[in-house]
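Table S2 (continued). Query chain:
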Amino acid sequence: MANGFDSYTPLTQATLDAAKKAGYTFAIRYYATNTSLDKVMTRDEAQRISDNGLYVVSVFQDFNNDYKYFNTSYGTADGKAAYNYAKNTIKQPSGTPIYFAVDYDAEDSEVKGGILDYFTAIKQVFTNLGGEYKIGVYGSGAVCQYIKDTKNLAQFSWLSMSTGWRGYQSYLDGKTWNLRQIKSITINGVSCDSDESSSLGGGGWKL
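Corresponding output:
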């Protein structure tokens, strides 16, 4: 098991120093369609994280917090945006995952409807673009179970810290997750969430 954190805020040297002192070994940072957003990791930041000895884990999220953001069209657009940013801007190593967020407690019919369509489209895009990256899913236990373990549309899963969401405890106990989000924390004054990787590995990488 390794301890890490996810942050919407770009990581400065001071924050990385504090994270290392606290024993964290990986940082989860964001991609998005609008690459000018503050939450989006730049190539320089990815290099800085790597140079400080921490692994990077990448997650794509625009909004992704409501069912209206999940369908084939969004999956195609998000898949292309994430893959191309990882490959052409970040130079993320091939063979590593990009997680895609389902940041709400989706109903079973939604998981088997638009969310399934969304990840099916992402898989098709990744295949069409060369298949250099693996797919990860972030969300409830029910979402992670269905998308990764039942439908095999993702190779990595990251369990949300929202314990009241569907399937949380059973997915946690099943231990097929790669990452699990634990609780809100502060590092160097920056609001983050703590995370843990399982023995399966969380898909971290370095430049």
